Amino acid sequence: MDHSPITPAIFYWGTPVVLVTTTNEDGTSNIGPISSAWWLGNRCVLGLEGNSQTTLNMIRTKQCVLNLPDETMVSNVNALARTTGTEEVPEIKIKLGYRYDKDKFKTSRLTPEDSVKVSPPRIRECPVQMEAEMIGVHELMKDGPSELKGFLMAIEVRVVQTHIEEKLRLAGHANRVDSDKWKPMIMCFQKLYGLKDGELANSTLADIEEETYRLPV
After folding, report:
1. Residues near 139 by Cβ (< 8 Å), separated by ≥ 6?
2. Pairing of β 83-84 and β 99-100
């Protein structure tokens, strides 16, 4: 198998789309669509621009909701793709075709519903909703050019309440998801994908009881 060197501008090998809801300074809600997110235990690390409204809201309020759309919600996600909750749109985003949007719920045709443990709303249409609290912020690319200072952030959050649609529950288990029924929306090099082909093969890791991964709270 031959390989050759390339220098990609982006490294989106395949990550879930997340609609992050936060609360603006005036009490209204913002939805930030992102696709840089990964989980360990009940912690999630989010990759965000330092000047985005989502980042500013999270740093100020220390709260958010991570809403996961499924593969049926492409039109809702695309409606948000080039919107920003920042009233003064940064020059770089203007060049990319972004526009200020005060009411992203209306724009995306999504429905807010009250959360249980945090202030930002959940998104009713998303099959998975995780209420979360911000734990820490790490600035990326500190070793890079000075103009990138503060441009990218890795934000750690702790999931404090998880909600899923009943149809996603694994029968016979109180706290497990049926992975055959959960069809997340995946971003891969600027394109949206689903998991229509199902499971590729049995994983040897599946022989380990899932509860053994649960970390102390």
Report:
1. 50, 149, 150, 152, 153, 154
2. parallel
- Amino acid 95: pLDDT: 82
Q: Write out pLDDT tens, residues 184-200.
A: 999 999 899 998 776 66
% of the chain with per-residue pLDDT over 90: 74
Cα 111 to chain centroid, rounded: 17
Q: Which residues of 21-34 are buried (b: 16+ CB within 10 A; e: fewer)?
A: bbbbeeeebbbbbb
Q: What are the structural domain ranges in the chain?
A: 15-213
pLDDT at 184 (0 to 100): 95
* Structure tokens, 130: 């995780």
* C-alpha pair distances (Å), 27 with each of 101, 151, 190, 202: 15, 26, 32, 47
The residues with which 31 forms a beta bridge, in sequence order, are 21
**Token pair for 66:** 């991570």
DSSP 47-62: EEETTSHHHHHHHHH-
Domain 15-213 coded CATH 3.40.47.10:
no
